[in-house]
Amino acid sequence: MSDMIEGRLLRRYKRFLADVELADGQQITAHCPNTGAMTGCAEPGSRVWLSLSDSKTRKYPHTWELVETAMGMACVHSARANKVVRQGLEQGVIPGFEDYPEIRSEVKYGNNSRADLLLEGPPGRVFVEVKSVTLCMENGQGLFPDAVSDRGRKHLLELEGVIDDATRAIMFFCALHGGVDRVSAAGEIDRRYRDTLAAVMEQGVEVMAWGARVTPREIVLDRPLPFSLDPMTEPLTIAQLTGRDDSHLLTLADGHRLHPEAAAAFARLQADARASGFDLAIASSYRSYDRQLAIFNGKACGQRPVHDDRGEVLDLQALTARQKLAAILRFSALPGTSRHHWGTDLDVFDAAAVPEGYQVQLDPVEVAPGGLFDALHRWLDARMAAGESHGFYRPYAEDRGGVAVERWHLSYAPLARRCERLLRAADLRQCWRGGLELGELVERDLDEILARYVEVADHWCPDP
Question: How far apart are CA 167 and CA 254, in angstroms?
Answer without folding.
Answer: 32
